[in-house]
Amino acid sequence: MTASRRLPDGRGYFGQFGGMFVPETLMPALKELELAYAKAQADPDFQQQFQHLCRHYIGRPTPLYAAKQLSAKIGAATILLKREDLAHTGAHKINNALGQGLLAKRMGKKRVIAETGAGQHGVAVAAVCAMLGLKCIIYMGEEDIKRQSPNVFRIKLLGGEVRPVSSGSRTLKDAINETIRDWVSNVNDSYYLLGSVVGPYPYPMIVRNFQSIIGQETKEQILATYQRLPDYLIACVGGGSNAIGLFHPFFSQKSVKFIGVEAAGKGLATDKHAASLAVGKVGVLHGTKSYLLQDDNGQIMPTHSIAPGLDYPGVGPEHSYYKETGRATYVAVSDTQALEGFKLLSHTEGIIPALEPAHAIYYTAELAAGLPSDKLIVVNLSGRGDKDLDIVYQAEGREL
Amino acid sequence: MSRIASVFKPGHKALIAYLTVGYPDIETTYKVASVLADSGCDIIELGIPFSDPLADGVTIQRASYQALKQGTSRQTCLEVAGKLSQKLTMPLVFMTYYNPVFSFGLEAFCRAVAGAGVDGLIIPDLPVEEGSELEAITRKLNLDLIYLLAPTSTGERVSIVAEKSGGFIYLVSLTGVTGARKTLPAELEEFVRRVRKKATQPLCVGFGIANAEQARRVAKVADGIIVGSRLIQLIEEDGTLSSLKTFISSLRVALG
């Protein structure tokens, strides 16, 4: 048992972050979930079922690809890409959707509800629900429906129902509000399949544990090929599930540096960004205490990122804990820089990344340029970019 | 006995009315409070608007959004409460979400609340598990921290809330968010009785209550009712507030 494996504590906290700030109506459901998850986790049959489907449904293990052309272009450290973009449905989101889908089925729930921002989580949940024969309802902000329309269509093709959310900023934050309201109203028969390491305990722990397969595989793969641990792990951070999934299994290996990359949008000096760790203050949103973008009155602020999956004013409580304890460093990359990262990977490696990990790619290129060639960097390529072609076309037009 | 607890007398059922401060504007907030006081309300619950009211249905969501758009801040709400507590004799309670309280600083917020003459707090996203720090502060300042129970609450949870809730216990009538409903759940009486067995505090039922008939039904088993969304609808429908006055009076009659 590593130190981080013992976190969260019995009250659902990572240091001062986390907890369960939800209406009383949901408290019994969260306790039921905690108990059901603990039983499933201890059940070899459940674990075997998850592992089996990870291999045969998701296509795991995903490769750890040496991006030689990218490394050569930068002329420095070795960059390895953890290819979550090759997972079924095109992003890491499927790992958690599968794990929790199996849990929902085991708990006898018939109706699954979920929020989605970029649509990747929505697609993953819809796929898993189709496979497991569960009813699937996805809440998605109207703004995100507009900018991620291919994913809306995919969710519908997979038999999911998309419910547009027109309140607030009409993005991920509001989709979560609406899913929580649905859960409050239908808590007895519905399972809330939360898509990131946010929300009330036990979600940050459950999602982290299902996503940890990313870091576990990375560790085995890098030890097999390079006979040593990486020097850096780099991942984009919105809610932070792909980052925690990569980081967490390396928590106790202090020589491995963690870098999370947030969305600087149009710049941290403007009010159009989503960098809650970089410039936020501690607060409570969606059931958890963590860093938040909020005004002086404790109202949640609107956010912006070119990458819908990063467009969220909060962040997982475990990331806040990593920041506070110095275990991880968090940086921010702008919309324009993310587009550069997007093009860089497409041109050098023939891989079109999603705009979310394009943030991590850009930062990696910057960092690698200043490092000696014997350094090993692993970047989580958390999703593929098909969903973003419209956004990039709008931003770049014919010049691309 | 707290000012809130003293409202509950034998044979008298409490009528608690919610309004979102600053909706549709501050001037209306004062007028509505006067109407509520004059037509037989016992406690006024002042809502400090929050950007992400996840326990609220569309009516209070819309009211909160508009109030924030008008620039209603925590400071505005404290000022409004301060003036109302001078003018009215009835207890006042703040209802808001945890983040506006937390970001003010728990102790600083409670001191400002007490200073404004407000008697208690209702925070729907603060379950007992997370409330111990705020409980200690409110106790010190003689504020009532009013907890909620829901139809889904287990027996164990009912016992804990019965131990800790100040003033009264807020019973959420249904499994859902706030908002006027045509019917209340059939299990409501059983839920109230279940809590009654363990709690000594007065029990007030809220969420969904939208007419006198429902009020009469609830009053048979509970010690008071809380109405909110229906009042906001009436304020929207009739700016003269005479519909609101008629409605409150009808609830008062129904409660006996």
What's the helix and strand layout?
The complex is a heterodimer of chains A (400) and B (256).
Chain A: E1 13-14, E2 17-18, H1 27-41, H2 44-58, E3 64-66, H3 68-74, E4 78-83, H4 93-106, E5 111-116, H5 120-132, E6 135-141, H6 142-147, H7 149-157, E7 161-165, H8 172-185, E8 190-192, H9 203-211, H10 213-226, E9 232-236, H11 241-247, E10 257-265, H12 276-279, E11 281-285, E12 288-292, H13 317-325, E13 328-334, H14 335-349, H15 355-369, E14 376-381, H16 389-396
Parallel strand pairs in A: 4-14, 5-6, 5-8, 6-7, 9-10, 9-14, 10-13
Antiparallel strand pairs in A: 1-2, 3-4, 11-12
Helix pairs in contact in A: 2-4, 3-14, 4-5, 4-9, 5-7, 9-11, 10-11, 14-15
Chain B: E1 14-20, H1 26-38, E2 43-47, H2 58-69, H3 74-87, E3 92-95, H4 98-104, H5 106-115, E4 120-122, H6 132-140, E5 144-146, E6 148-149, H7 155-164, E7 169-172, H8 188-196, E8 203-206, H9 212-219, E9 224-227, H10 229-237, H11 242-255
Parallel strand pairs in B: 1-2, 1-9, 2-3, 3-4, 4-5, 6-7, 7-8, 8-9
Helix pairs in contact in B: 4-5, 9-11
Give an account of the 3D structure.
The complex is a heterodimer of chains A (400) and B (256). In chain A, helix 10 crosses helix 11. The N and C termini of chain A lie far apart (49 Å). In chain A, the strands form four sheets. Chain A has a six-stranded mixed beta sheet, sandwiched between helices. A four-stranded parallel beta sheet of chain A has the order 7-6-5-8, sandwiched between helices. Chain A has helices spanning 27-41, 44-58, 68-74, 93-106, 120-132, 142-147, 149-157, 172-185, 203-211, 213-226, 241-247, 276-279, 317-325, 335-349, 355-369, 389-396, and strands at residues 13-14, 17-18, 64-66, 78-83, 111-116, 135-141, 161-165, 190-192, 232-236, 257-265, 281-285, 288-292, 328-334, 376-381. Chain A contains 16 helices and 14 strands. Chain A is 44% helix and 18% strand. Chain B is an alpha/beta fold and 256 residues long. Chain B has a single domain (13-145, 208-255), classed as Aldolase class I (TIM Barrel, Alpha-Beta Barrel). A nine-stranded parallel beta sheet of chain B has the order 5-4-3-2-1-9-8-7-6. In chain B, strand 8, helix 9 (212-219) and strand 9 (224-227) form a beta-alpha-beta unit. The model of chain B has no long low-confidence stretch (mean pLDDT 97). The interface between A and B is large, with 37 and 39 residues.
